[in-house]
Amino acid sequence: MTSEERLALIRAGLSSRHARERRFRFYGLAAIAAALGAVVILFGMILAKGLPAFTQATLTLDVAFDPAIVKVEDKPRQREGQSPADYRQELLAWERKVTMLNWNRVVEEAVRAAAPGTEADSRQLLSIVETNARFQLRDLFVADPSLLGKTVAVKMLASANADNWLKGNIDRSLPDAQQQLSAPARALADELREKGNIDFAFAWHIFTNTDSRSAPASAGLAGAFVGSLYMMLVVIVLAVPIGVMSAVYLEEFAPKNRFTDLIEVNINNLAAVPSIVFGLLGAAVFINYFRLPLSAPLVGGLVLTLMTLPTIIIATRSALRAVSPSLRQAALGLGASKTQTVFHHVLPVTYPGILTATIIGVAQALGETAPLLLIGMNAFVAQVPGTPLDQSTALPVQIYLWQGNENRNFFEARTSAAIIVLLGLMLTLNAIAIFLRTRLEKRA
Length: 444
Known about the structure:
three-stranded antiparallel β-sheet; about 65% helix
């Protein structure tokens, strides 16, 4: 083979190698673009469906506290010489009378006054207003009894069915039998919308109210949000120190024998166990054996701690293995003990890795639903938990519950809105952890 033929052969080989490198680079970029595209599509669909749920049809009506309907004596005042207990009893009796008044009639009269020509009957009039509007008016009167005989403008939520109709979530061409509102009620909602009595306002109650079945338009995420925070607090307080200390002992102090090898294998196996198995374990151990309260964030946090521990242990051990052996040798050479070497020199270097493990573990725990269903956290809870021992639900479980609600036209958007809130909470936690990791990396 001549030198020119050898040179041509080498050039052909180089050309082929460069072509393979270009193809490999193209495939890599295509894979990244496909992954990013899938994420963009997923987030786009969630935002497109969820953002409309952050606005809610709201009625502004002139409500008349007509003495002919609100028939109740004046609010009692504490008389001279009357004991606080007697006054309290008298006040409670007055509030019970106020509660028993026909507040639905007050709501009905307010709607009828806004649309005097409507053909809707009483039931159809009330069907466009959220059912808890009567409690809203009752609370207004209890707080200010001087409203008797006055007419004031009050904002109240439209019902879920009216919200669906006005937002166009239901095909207006469907026959009456397939509509959620009767024809007069639909016409009334459109009329009030045209007159400006109904507008769309930001739905703050999604963040401040708890779940509600009797008044779905006022259902919110406050209880699930606080329940999730309590659970994450339990997970962070338990899983991080136990996981990190376990990893330090296994990696730095434990003897290398078959027993520690067995422990390591089982930790790796636990990381692959389906989350629903941890739920069965939690229901059997924490609820049936230890009799801890059902549906409590404490039990949920304990179950998620068990599920998160393998992730933190494995990631922390990997971070410890990545520390250069020269660091340990230098510390030991200067006379430091084994414990001082680990806790004063090795462990601080691994803080960024430990925080990364915490991010992964907590984010995984925050989005878990299956184990929480088995310990009863899919129960309907209508209050915000005051402590981790109170009954509560969690954000992923609330999403699960709303997804299965029969009023799908309304709760499909609410479900996406709850997913946005959950993702926002996860991103916030991750941002805090990344900020701390960056600061620790600079110190290291």
